[in-house]
User: Which sequence fits this backbone?
C-alpha cells in the first residue's frame, strides 16, 4: 500500500536532489479564490468551495519528481492533470502551495527570472503539437533558441541535430501542415529538446494520434529517454500508456491525487475502487517485476539469467527453451534469487 | 452557469403585448388632444445638441490648446504629415515628380507609365494567384485605361495606397491594445459601434474643418471609416489563437513583445488578411465618397456627372470604379490565401523572380516611355468612350418605356410609399419610445429597454424625430423589398447548387462595389426622388439577405433533414417545417445586416433628393455646419443601434428556443 508521502519525507527527498517538488498545491478558479481558501483552511472540501462559487481544478497536491525518472500523472478529462502540469511551470498561477525546482521556490521568482528558467531549464510538448503554422520544421525547432537570441548558424545547427534525433532528417524545410500527425509531434518533441532542458513536460503528447502511431511514438519516446535520461513529467489519460512508460505514476481524480507509486504497486495494491477499475484489465505479468516474484536462491544455480528489474512478461520467453528456473541478478550482476517457472505460469494465467 | 429565471409568460406574455399595443394605438388615435406633447416634442425642453457641437468645434478650432501648440495646429500638423506619403504616391502614379511650384514646375521624373502599372498589377496577380488572376488584374486596369479613366483612377488608387497601410497598422495596434487591456476594449467598443454606424457624410464636416479641404482630409475620413473592422478582427483573431500556442510562447520564454509579434500575430495571419481585404474595400468605398471633400479621382467624376445628369460619363466612371474594385478585391483575397511556401533554389534571382521582374519591368517601361510617348501616356486618340452610347440607351429607354416606368413608379409611390410615410410621420414619439422600451424589455431585459428608449428619446429631444421617421420609412420599405427578393433567391440557391454558383459570383461582385455606384442606374431610369432612393437601397441591401439565408439553410444539420426524409416529409415540408425553422436565427441576422446596409446606403441617396436624416447630413455638409450634420448623423446611428440590438436580441432568443445556444 502506497501512502502519500508525509511532508517531512518529501523534504528528505528534496535534500537528496528531487528535481521538482510540489507541496500542498491548490488551484481554484473563480473570484477571490485565495482569500476564500485561506478562510476555509482545512475545511476546503469540494462542496464548500463550490458553494463559494469556486471551481477547484487542483486540490492539495503534494508530490516530488526525482532526477532522471519518468513521472506520469494519469487522470481522466477534467481531473486537473493539465492544470497541474501548468502549475509546475507557472503557466497557471497557483492559488496556494509551493513549487520547488532544485529547492528554489518558483512562486517567488520574478517574471524575468521565470522567463530565464523556462528558456533554459524547461521544455514542453503539447497535445495538439502547438507548431507555429508559418514556420518551417527547422524554424519551429529553432524557435526557442531564436527567442533567446542565439545566432542563426548556431541555432540552426542545434535544431538540425534535434530533428535528426527524432528521425525527421530531410524534412527541415517542410511546413507543419505538410506533415502527418505523428511527424508533427516529432517536431514538437524536437523543439522542446532544442534548449536541452533539465525538466521535460509532456502534456498528453500522444493522445491526438492514431493508436498505431501512438504505439510507435511511445517506443520512440522510450528510445529517446534511454539516450537522454531527462527528468520527465508526463501527462496522460491512458492507463496503459502510463503503465508502459512510467517509473512512478500519480493518479488524479477531481483535482486530487488518489494514489501514487510505481506501476507495480498501483496494479498490485490499488488504493481505491476507482484505481482498481483502471487496473482490472492490465495483465499482471506486464507490471510485476522479477524482483517481486522471485524466490530465495536455493538448490542448483540455473544457467539462464534475468535482471531483477525486468517484468515477468519480459522474462517469460526465456522459459520457452525448456528452463525450469532463471537466476535473478541485480544491476551489478550479483545473484539475488531464483525465478521459478511455475510461479511465472501462475502469474500469467492469473491475468 | 447563470440562467435567467424561466417564467410562465406564455399567457401573461400575450396579454402584455396586447395591452401595450392597445395603449399605443389608443394614444396614437385619440391622444392628440390630450397629450399634444407626445406628438410634437416640446421645444422648451429640447436639447440644442447641434449648437453645442458647433460651438465646441469652433472652440477646438480657435481656442483649444495644449500649451505649446493649439489643437488646430495639431490637426494641421497631422494633415501635413499625411500629405508627404500622399504626395509621393500621387507623384509616382499620376503627376510625376516636380520641382518648383505652380506654372514654373519642372518635371524631374515622369510618373509610372500605364505599361508599368498594368505590368506590376499583372505580376502581383501572377505571384498571388497565378496566370488567371494576372489576366484579370491586367484586364481590369486595361479597361480603365482604354475608357479614358486612367488619370482619375490613379488619383483614387493613390489615396487607397496611402490609406490602407495606415488603416491596417492603426487597426492592428488598436486591436492589440484592446486584446491586452480589457479596460481599453470596453472603452473602445462603443466608439467603434458609433464609427461604423454614423453615416460617413456626418463626420466629413468636422474633418473638413479640422484638416482642411483636400485629399489628406479624405485620407483621414477613410481611416476613421476603414479602421474599426480591422480593430475588431484583430482583437477577435488574437483571442482565437489556441491556448496551446500561447502556452508554448510562455514556455519557451517569450517576452511580451516576442509573444505578440512572433507567436500571436503570425498565428492569426489568415483572419488578419481578411481584415486587410476589408480595409481595402472600405477605403475604396470611402475614397469615392470623400471626393466631396476634395479627394478627386473617380468619385469626383461620378459626382460631377450626377450633378449635371450626364449618365454616360457617370456610368463610365462608375464602371471604372467597379473594375478597380474587382481587381483590388481579388488581388487582396489571393494574398490572404497565399501560403508562404519554403523558398526553392538559391541566389537572389531564383528566390525573388517576381520582385526582380517587377523592378526590371518598371525600369524598362520608364525608358521605353521616354522613347515612345504613347507607352508613357495612353494617346487620347485611342480612347474609347461609351458615354454617348449609354446616354443613347437611357434616352431610348426613356422614350419607349417612359409611360410604363412612370406608371410603375407612381403606383408604388401612391399606394405604398406615401401612405406608409404618412402613417409613420403621424405616430407619437412618446408612444413609439414606450413601445420600443417594452419590446426591448421583452427581448433582452431592462438594460436593453433603457438603451433603446433613451436612444429613441434622444432622437426626439434633438429635434430629429420627423426626419428620422422618414428615414425609418424609407429604410423599412427598402428592407422589406430586399428581404422579399433576397430570401427567396437564398432559398432557391441553397436548394440547387446550379443556382448557387452564379448567384454567389453576382453577390460577391455586388458586395465589392462602392455604394456610390448603385445610384447611377437608378437615377438614369427613375430620375430623383424617394422611389429612386428605394431602388438603389434595395439593390445595395439585397446582398446580405441572400447571403445569410443561404448560410442559415446550408448550415442546417444534414442529419435533421435526413430524419425528415426518413419520416416521409415532402421536400416542401422539409423546407418549411425543418430547414427554415432552424435557419431562423441566421435569417434574422441577415435581416439585421440588410437594415444596416440599407441605412448606410440611404444616407448616400440624399444625393438624389430624399428628405430624411441623410438629406439633413448632406445639407450640413454643403453648408459646412458640423453640429447639424453630426446630430443628424448620430440620429442615424441611434436608429441603427436600436435596430441592431433588438434584432440581435430576438436572434439570440430564437437560438435559445431552438436549443442551439444556452439561454
Assistant:
Amino acid at each position: 500500500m502506497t501512502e502519500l508521502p508525509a511532508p517531512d519525507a518529501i523534504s528528505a527527498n528534496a535534500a537528496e536532489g528531487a528535481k521538482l517538488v510540489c507541496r500542498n498545491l491548490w488551484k481554484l478558479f473563480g473570484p477571490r479564490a485565495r482569500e476564500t481558501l485561506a478562510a476555509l483552511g482545512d475545511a476546503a472540501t469540494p462542496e464548500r468551495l463550490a458553494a463559494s462559487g469556486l471551481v477547484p481544478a487542483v486540490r492539495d497536491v503534494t508530490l516530488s519528481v526525482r532526477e532522471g525518472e519518468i513521472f506520469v500523472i494519469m487522470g481522466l478529462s477534467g481531473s486537473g492533470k493539465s492544470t497541474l502540469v501548468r502549475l509546475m511551470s507557472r503557466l497557471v498561477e497557483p492559488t496556494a502551495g509551493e513549487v520547488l525546482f532544485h529547492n528554489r521556490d518558483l512562486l517567488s521568482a520574478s517574471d524575468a527570472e521565470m522567463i530565464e528558467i523556462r528558456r533554459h531549464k524547461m521544455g514542453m510538448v503539447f497535445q495538439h503539437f502547438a507548431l507555429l503554422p508559418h514556420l518551417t520544421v527547422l524554424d519551429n525547432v529553432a524557435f526557442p533558441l531564436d527567442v533567446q537570441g542565439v545566432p542563426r548558424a548556431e541555432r540552426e545547427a542545434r535544431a538540425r541535430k534535434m530533428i535528426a534525433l527524432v528521425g525527421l532528417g530531410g524534412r527541415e524545410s517542410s511546413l507543419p501542415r505538410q506533415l502527418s500527425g505523428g511527424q508533427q509531434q516529432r517536431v514538437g518533441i524536437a523543439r522542446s529538446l532544442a534548449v536541452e532542458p533539465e525538466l521535460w513536460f509532456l502534456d498528453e503528447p500522444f493522445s491526438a494520434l492514431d493508436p498505431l502511431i501512438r504505439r510507435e511514438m511511445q517506443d520512440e519516446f522510450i528510445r529517446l529517454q534511454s539516450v537522454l535520461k531527462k527528468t520527465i513529467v508526463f501527462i496522460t489519460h491512458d492507463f496503459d500508456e502510463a503503465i508502459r512508460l512510467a517509473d512512478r505514476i500519480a493518479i488524479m481524480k477531481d483535482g486530487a491525487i488518489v494514489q501514487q507509486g510505481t506501476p507495480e504497486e498501483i496494479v498490485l495494491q490499488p488504493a481505491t475502487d476507482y484505481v482498481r477499475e483502471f487496473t482490472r484489465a492490465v495483465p499482471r505479468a506486464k507490471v510485476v517485476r522479477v524482483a517481486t516474484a522471485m524466490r530465495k536462491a536455493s538448490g542448483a544455480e540455473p544457467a539462464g539469467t534475468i535482471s531483477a528489474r525486468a517484468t515477468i512478461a519480459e522474462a517469460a520467453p526465456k522459459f520457452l527453451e525448456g528452463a525450469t528456473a532463471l537466476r535473478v541478478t541485480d544491476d551489478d550482476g550479483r545473484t539475488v534469487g531464483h525465478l521459478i517457472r511455475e510461479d511465472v505460469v501462475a502469474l500469467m494465467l492469473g491475468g | 452557469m447563470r440562467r435567467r429565471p424561466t417564467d410562465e409568460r406564455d399567457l401573461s406574455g400575450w396579454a402584455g403585448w396586447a395591452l401595450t399595443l392597445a395603449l399605443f394605438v389608443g394614444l396614437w388615435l385619440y391622444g392628440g388632444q390630450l397629450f399634444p406633447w407626445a406628438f410634437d416634442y416640446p421645444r422648451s425642453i429640447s436639447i440644442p445638441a447641434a449648437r453645442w457641437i458647433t460651438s465646441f468645434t469652433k472652440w477646438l478650432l480657435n481656442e483649444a490648446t495644449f500649451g505649446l501648440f493649439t489643437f488646430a495646429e495639431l490637426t494641421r500638423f497631422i494633415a501635413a504629415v499625411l500629405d508627404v506619403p500622399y504626395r509621393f504616391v500621387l507623384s509616382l502614379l499620376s503627376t510625376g515628380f516636380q520641382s518648383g511650384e505652380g506654372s514654373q514646375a519642372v518635371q524631374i521624373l515622369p510618373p509610372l507609365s500605364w505599361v508599368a502599372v498594368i505590368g506590376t498589377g499583372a505580376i502581383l496577380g501572377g505571384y498571388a494567384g497565378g496566370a488567371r488572376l494576372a489576366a484579370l488584374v491586367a484586364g481590369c486596369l486595361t479597361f480603365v485605361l482604354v475608357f479614358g479613366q486612367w488619370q482619375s483612377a490613379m488619383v483614387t488608387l493613390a489615396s487607397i495606397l496611402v490609406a490602407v497601410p495606415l488603416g491596417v497598422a492603426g487597426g492592428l495596434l488598436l486591436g492589440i491594445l484592446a486584446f491586452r487591456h480589457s479596460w481599453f476594449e470596453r472603452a473602445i467598443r462603443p466608439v467603434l459601434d458609433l464609427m461604423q454606424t454614423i453615416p460617413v457624410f456626418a463626420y466629413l464636416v468636422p474633418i473638413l474643418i479640422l484638416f482642411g479641404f483636400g485629399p489628406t482630409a479624405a485620407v483621414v475620413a477613410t481611416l476613421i471609416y476603414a479602421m474599426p473592422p480591422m480593430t475588431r478582427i484583430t482583437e477577435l483573431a488574437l483571442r482565437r489563437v489556441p491556448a496551446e500556442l500561447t502556452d508554448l510562447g510562455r514556455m519557451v520564454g517569450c517576452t511580451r513583445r516576442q509573444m505578440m509579434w512572433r507567436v500571436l500575430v503570425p498565428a492569426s495571419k489568415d483572419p488578419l488578411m481578411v481584415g486587410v481585404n476589408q480595409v481595402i474595400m472600405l477605403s475604396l468605398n470611402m475614397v469615392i465618397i470623400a471626393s466631396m471633400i476634395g479627394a478627386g479621382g473617380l468619385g469626383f467624376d461620378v459626382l460631377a456627372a450626377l450633378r449635371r445628369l450626364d449618365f454616360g460619363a457617370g456610368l463610365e466612371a462608375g464602371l471604372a470604379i467597379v473594375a478597380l474594385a474587382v481587381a483590388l478585391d481579388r488581388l487582396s483575397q489571393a494574398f490572404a490565401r497565399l501560403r508562404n511556401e519554403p523558398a526553392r533554389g538559391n541566389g537572389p534571382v531564383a528566390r525573388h523572380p517576381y520582385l526582380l521582374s517587377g523592378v526590371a519591368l518598371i525600369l524598362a517601361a520608364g525608358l521605353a516611355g521616354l522613347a515612345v510617348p504613347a507607352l508613357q501616356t495612353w494617346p487620347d486618340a485611342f480612347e474609347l468612350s461609351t458615354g454617348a452610347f449609354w446616354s443613347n440607351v437611357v434616352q431610348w429607354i426613356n422614350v419607349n418605356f417612359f409611360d410604363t416606368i412612370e406608371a410603375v413608379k407612381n403606383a408604388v409611390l401612391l399606394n405604398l410609399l406615401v401612405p406608409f410615410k404618412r402613417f409613420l410621420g403621424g405616430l407619437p414619439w412618446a408612444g413609439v419610445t414606450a413601445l420600443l422600451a417594452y419590446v426591448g424589455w421583452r427581448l433582452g431585459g431592462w438594460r436593453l429597454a433603457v438603451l433603446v428608449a433613451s436612444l429613441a428619446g434622444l432622437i426626439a429631444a434633438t429635434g430629429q424625430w420627423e426626419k428620422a421617421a422618414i428615414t425609418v420609412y424609407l429604410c423599412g420599405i427598402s428592407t422589406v423589398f430586399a428581404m422579399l427578393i433576397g430570401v427567396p433567391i437564398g432559398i432557391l440557391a441553397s436548394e440547387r447548387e446550379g443556382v448557387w454558383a452564379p448567384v454567389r459570383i453576382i453577390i460577391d461582385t455586388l458586395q465589392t462595389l462602392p455604394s456610390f455606384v448603385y445610384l447611377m442606374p437608378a437615377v438614369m431610369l427613375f430620375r430623383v426622388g424617394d422611389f429612386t432612393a428605394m431602388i438603389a437601397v434595395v439593390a445595395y441591401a439585397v446582398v446580405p439577405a441572400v447571403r445569410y439565408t443561404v448560410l442559415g439553410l446550408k448550415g442546417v444539420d444534414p442529419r435533421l433533414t435526413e430524419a425528415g426524409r426518413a419520416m416521409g416529409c415532402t421536400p416542401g415540408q422539409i423546407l418549411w417545417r425543418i430547414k427554415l425553422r432552424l435557419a431562423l436565427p441566421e435569417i434574422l441576422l441577415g435581416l439585421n445586416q440588410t437594415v444596416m446596409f440599407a441605412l448606410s446606403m440611404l444616407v448616400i441617396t440624399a444625393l438624389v433628393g430624399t428628405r430624411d436624416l441623410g438629406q439633413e447630413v448632406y445639407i450640413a455638409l454643403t453648408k459646412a455646419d458640423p453640429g447639424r450634420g453630426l446630430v443628424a448623423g448620430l440620429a442615424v446611428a441611434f436608429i441603427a443601434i436600436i435596430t441592431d440590438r433588438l434584432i440581435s436580441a430576438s436572434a439570440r432568443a430564437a437560438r435559445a428556443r431552438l436549443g442551439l445556444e444556452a439561454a
Q: What stands out?
A: Chain A touches chain B at residues 86, 89, 91, 115-120, 122-124, 126-130, 132-136, 143-144, 146-148, 173-175, 195, 201 (CB under 8 Å).
